[in-house]
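Researcher: Sequence recovery benchmark, item below. Answer with residues only.
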């Protein structure tokens, strides 16, 4: 796993980094004079964990936050862990037949990716996989939107998504792609074993080669007159159907 320093901003993102990965938080900047009790809590927690805290002006925070809303706090962080593709098989095997992998084929909006990671963390996924090309990486916007989820789950940016899907199949993982034109319903599909759920990016959805490597295509039944859902909404629905099946009875 490789790391590089970056700034993360916002109350939830910074608080989560301090709570879950304090060893990689290099320093915390807090807006001086703020009366926000959440900022006080963050500052106290950082100091308890021997993290340097500096009180700075709102202007200084805006300088590191760029276009993001900093909410009075920022942290310099050894960036989100980048997992090597070779580490994925061990994670699948450690799940002992109950691996749940989320595959995102070409999500380019950082807010969507952040929301997908948040749902993935809440659903307890084994790993999240997306291609290095044609996808947004784990940047500051993704980290902020994910509310810290990017720090808590293994995320794999792979060179060749089709090859990765083949490797998952060889590990005994069934791969289901979400497609609006599919005949099979998500709710009638057995998602209780080793399963990878594939969702396409904004606009075009899954690419042709990605579809061809799926064991089956499923759809979310929608009785209304809307043809498709935002990818982050569809991700939440799909993951928690798997959770429902795995925890039922």
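Model:
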């Amino acid at each position: 796993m490789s790391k590089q320093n970056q700034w993360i901003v916002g109350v939830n993102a910074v608080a989560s980094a301090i709570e879950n990965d304090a060893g990689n938080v290099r320093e915390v900047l807090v807006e001086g004079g703020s009366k926000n009790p959440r900022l006080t809590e963050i500052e106290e927690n950082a100091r308890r964990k021997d993290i340097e805290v500096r009180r700075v002006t709102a202007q200084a925070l805006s300088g590191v936050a760029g276009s993001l809303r900093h909410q009075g706090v920022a942290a310099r962080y050894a960036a989100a862990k980048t997992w090597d593709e070779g580490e994925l098989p061990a994670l699948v095997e450690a799940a002992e037949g109950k691996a749940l992998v989320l595959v995102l084929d070409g999500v380019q909006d950082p807010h969507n990716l952040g929301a997908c990671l948040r749902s993935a963390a809440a659903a307890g996924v084994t790993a999240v996989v997306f291609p290095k090309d044609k996808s947004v990486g784990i940047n500051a916007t993704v980290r902020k939107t994910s509310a810290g989820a990017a720090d808590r789950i293994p995320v794999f940016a792979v060179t060749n998504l089709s090859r990765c899907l083949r490797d998952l199949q060889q590990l005994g993982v069934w791969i289901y792609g979400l497609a609006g034109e599919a005949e099979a319903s998500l709710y009638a599909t057995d998602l209780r074993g080793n399963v990878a759920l594939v969702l396409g990016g904004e606009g075009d959805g899954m690419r042709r080669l990605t579809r061809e490597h799926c064991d089956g295509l499923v759809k979310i039944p929608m009785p209304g007159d809307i043809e498709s859902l935002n990818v982050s909404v569809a991700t939440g629905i799909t993951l928690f159907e798997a959770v429902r099946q795995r925890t039922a009875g």
